[in-house]
Design brief:
Layout lengths: L1 H16 L6 H27 L4 E4 L3 E6 L2 E6 L3 E9 L2 E12 L2 E6 L12 H15 L4
Antiparallel strand pairs: 1-2, 2-3, 4-5, 5-6
């Protein structure tokens, strides 16, 4: 979590220090551009990477979710919807929960890669189907 920020700070220092001689306008324009770029950088890291679960284990009727040193068992009956996205051959699963858990209202994770190029992820398909069956009920 700290490495991307340190990398950005390093690039910022290198960019500003690499342009000698400096005028006041150079510092202002570079500083503004780096602040805008840094804001986008932090926004996308927070949205796409920092909120991901470190590990999600399938327990049949529940998922054991771990992020850092915290763990929680989330029942599949607590999952309101499953959003599966495929970007650049990476599958991302976001579970929206009926009642928030220790990690919030949404759980996001990258499942183990179980597909071939251009095909769907087997884990995502299986999880989506199981939650759909739970939502419909056993006798309907």
């Amino acid at each position: 979590m700290v490495a991307p920020i340190l990398m950005f700070v390093g690039v910022a220092v290198w960019t500003i220090a690499g342009n000698v001689p400096h005028t006041t306008m150079d510092f202002v324009s570079h500083g503004f551009a780096l602040c805008v770029l840094g804001s986008f950088f932090v926004y996308f890291l927070k949205r796409d990477i920092w909120g991901l679960a470190d590990q999600v284990l399938d327990g049949g009727d529940s998922l054991l979710v771990r992020r850092g040193k915290k763990e929680e068992r989330v029942l599949l009956t607590n999952v309101a919807s499953v959003d599966v996205t495929h970007q650049l051959n990476v599958t991302r699963i976001v579970l929206r929960l009926r009642t928030p858990c220790l990690f919030g209202e949404k759980l996001a994770f990258f499942p183990k890669v179980t597909h071939r190029l251009g095909r769907r992820n087997d884990i995502a398909d299986d999880l989506t189907a199981r939650i759909a069956r739970i939502r419909v009920g056993p006798y309907k």
